[in-house]
Amino acid sequence: MATISTLIERVRLELGDLGKSFVEQFMVDGTTNRFKIDLAPLDGPTVIVQKNGIDISSASWVEESTGVIVLETVPADGDLLTVSGTYFRYFTPTEMSTLVTTAITEHAGRHVDSAGRQITIDNLPSIEEYPVAVYATTLALYTLATDAAFDIDIAAPDGVNIPRSERYRQLMEMVQTRKDQYRELCSMLGIGLYTIDVLTLNRISKATGRLIPVYNPQEVDDRSYPHRVHVPPPTYGDSPVPWITEGGELTAYQGRAFITTLSFTGDFTGKSFLANLLTQRGTALVIQHFNLDVVDNGNNAFTATLSLTADQTSRLAERTYWSFSTVDDTTKEQIEFKGGDFFTIRVSSVVL
Questions:
Q1: What is residue 263's DSSP assignment?
Q2: Helix 4-15 with 129-148: angle, nearest 10 deg
Q3: Which of 73, 117, 156, 339 could bridge across to 160 with cysteines, CB 3.0–4.6 Å?
Q4: pLDDT tens across 218-270, in order?
Q5: pTM for the complete prediction?
């Protein structure tokens, strides 16, 4: 099973960025607590700092990208500081982890395994490890090329020319080579960004105007429950509508109980509370009442618990608006002071 660490090692092997050990000593003059290592970037967790033979690593910090060691206090004049550890040629462990994680996310995309689970680092097939490493190498080369793009050619008066832009050209050639390699691997193995997907379009019932569910085909003697296909509905150009009252977004799952708590303060003497789900903000049409429980914590501090049953969430639209309001016990005036989008994530069901 692939792990981030094993993929990072494969990418470093492709880049020639394997870790190397180092040992450096400083004779302290008592004026600073910052010491620059001649090598960078560093592998922070492997760096050991010793002062006069005593390990003080717990009282020091490592700037991995610059190779600077920062001590908690300024050592005394004449102390001997010894720093040892591992350094790399191009990328810090954090930077490499970011590149590999990005490569896995883009490589897997919306693809799933045989059980319908999203492909992640935890269930990445072994055959896809090397293509992911090649793609991460391409991303790393892009990063190096961006750095090299800031270099300019040098021409000295004595006729010496240093074409520093040549490094950028070589890196871009390597990028193209690696892109071609990744494309070839994905095309031959049927994986990654260049795999050929076979998709199913949802049909709309003429009688109801609703999408007709799609189920995975099964063998004729397979008596198991049918598995519903998660086909994302089209957006039809829908755009988010900004709400004036911002209370945060809430998310529920269709057919599952929902509960959340809100904390607020204020003087609500002579007022009660009301929580509803509306089709949109400002409308008088209530599509669902929340089960509401408000607890007075004292000092004008309150905690409200909003909940819905599983049966109630099964009938909610994908997007509604939740509203939490006060109601004057005398005038019955209703004033909203919290609200926001309420999303209901669809959960596949089984037709028996």
A1: E
A2: 50
A3: 156
A4: 889 888 778 778 777 777 887 766 655 556 889 999 989 999 998 888 888 88
A5: 0.69
